[in-house]
Amino acid sequence: MRRTIDWTGDAVTIIDQTVLPAEYRVLELRTVGELVAAIQRLAVRGAPALGAAGALGVVLATRAQGDVEAEARRVAQARPTAVNLSWGVSRALAKLSEGPEAVLAEALAILDEDERINHEASRLAADVVIEHCGRRPLRLLSHCNAGHLATVAWGSALGVVWHLQARGLVESVLVDETRPLLQGARLTAWELAEAGVPYRIQPDGAAAAAMSRGLVDCVLVGADRIAANGDVANKIGTYGLAIAAKHHGIPFVVVAPSSTVDTAMPDGAGIVIEERDPGEILAFGGTKVAPEGAEVFNPAFDVTPHGLVTAVVTEHGILNP
Ligand code: MRU
C-alpha cells in the first residue's frame, strides 16, 4: 500500500480518508490552506500521520511568499489534541535557519522514521500482549483506526495485529465502529479485510457486553497524546473501554510512537480535547436524525487515567510514567 501521506517534489499527497472504503482517492495538497482544511475534515488523520502532515505543512509554507512561522502556527493549531501535529511542525521549523532544503530534509526524515518506529513499537507491544494473554489464538478489540492509515505506514495498535497475525496468533478482531465518523467501520475494517484478518464490526456500545461474554482477550488502542504520568488521550470512547476492560480483568494496551508522549504535560487534565461540529451527531449519512434545535456534546477524544492502562508501549518499550 502507498504511504498515507507523502511528498511528490512539489505537493503533499494523502489518501483521502473521508471517502474510504467506497473510494480509494489520492489528493494533492499544494498550499498550507489546503493542508489545514484536509486536517480539519479528517482527510488526513491519526496522530502519527498528523506529525508528518505538520512537518510537510512547514515545507509548503517555505514555498509560499508569506510569513513561514505564522503559517507553521496555523498548521500546528489545525487540531488541538494530537501532540504529534505540533511536534512535526516544531521539528521542521527548527531547520528554518538552515534554509528550505533543510526543512524538507527534516520532513522527509520524519516520513522515513515513522514506519520503522511504529513497526518497532507494535512489535514490542505484541510481546506485551503475548505475555499478558493466555488464550490462543487471540481475540482482540480495536477502537478507532490506529493502522496504516493513521500513520505514514504500518500502524501502531493495528500494527500489533499485523505482527500477531504473522505469528499465526490472531483468531479475530472486534472492530468498534467508532461513532460519529466511523473510523473503525470504514478504515480499520478495510485494512483488516485487505490483510485477510478475520473481523467483526460492532457498535461502540457493544464493547462492554462483548467483554462480559468472554469474547475479548485484549484491548489494543493508539493514542493522540500521552501525559508524563501515563494518562492517555485517544478517540472518544477509549475511556469507557478501559473501565470495562479493568472491570473484566482484560489487558488494555496502548501503542504509540514516542512523538505522542508529551513530557511537558504533567497529567491528562491539561490536555485540550477537540470539540467537533454538532452536525456530525445531528445527521447520519446526510439525513437528519435529531429534533430541530437539539444541543450536542461532541468531544473527539477522551482521557484514560493511567491506572486503567496495562501498558503504554512505544518504540523504546513500556513507558514508565
Ligand atoms: O480523530 P482521529 O481519527 O484523528 O482520531 C484518531 C485516534 O484517536 C487514533 O486512535 C490515534 O490518533 C492513534 S493513531 C495511530
UniProtKB/TrEMBL annotation:
Q: Any idea of its EC number?
A: 5.3.1.23
Q: Please name the InterPro entries in this protein's record.
A: IF-2B-related (IPR000649), IF-M1Pi (IPR005251), IF_2B-like_C (IPR042529), Initiation_fac_2B_a/b/d (IPR011559), M1Pi_N (IPR027363), NagB/RpiA_transferase-like (IPR037171)
Which SUPFAM superfamilies does the protein's record reference? NagB/RpiA/CoA transferase-like
Instruction: Output the Gene Ontology terms for molecular function.
Output: S-methyl-5-thioribose-1-phosphate isomerase activity
Substrates-to-products reaction catalysed = 5-(methylsulfanyl)-alpha-D-ribose 1-phosphate = 5-(methylsulfanyl)-D-ribulose 1-phosphate
Q: Which residues bind substrate per the record?
A: 45-47, 79, 183, 234-235
What's its top-level EC category?
isomerase
Pathway involvement of the protein, from the record: Amino-acid biosynthesis; L-methionine biosynthesis via salvage pathway; L-methionine from S-methyl-5-thio-alpha-D-ribose 1-phosphate: step 1/6
Transmembrane stretches, start-end:
none
The feature of type site (Transition state stabilizer) is located at 144
Q: Name one GO biological process term.
A: L-methionine salvage from methylthioadenosine
- Per its UniProt record, what Pfam families does this chain match? IF-2B
Which superkingdom?
A: Bacteria
Instruction: Give the keywords, sorted.
Output: Amino-acid biosynthesis, Isomerase, Methionine biosynthesis
Gene3D superfamilies reported in the protein's UniProt record: translation initiation factor eif-2b, domain 1, Translation initiation factor eif-2b, domain 2
> Which residues are named in the active-site annotation?
224
Q: What does the similarity note say? A: Belongs to the EIF-2B alpha/beta/delta subunits family. MtnA subfamily.
**What PANTHER family is this protein classified in?**
METHYLTHIORIBOSE-1-PHOSPHATE ISOMERASE
Question: What job does this protein perform?
Answer: Catalyzes the interconversion of methylthioribose-1-phosphate (MTR-1-P) into methylthioribulose-1-phosphate (MTRu-1-P).
Read off the HAMAP family from this record. Answer: Salvage_MtnA
Q: What's the name of the protein?
A: Methylthioribose-1-phosphate isomerase
- Species assigned in the record: Amycolatopsis japonica
Q: Which gene encodes it?
A: mtnAB
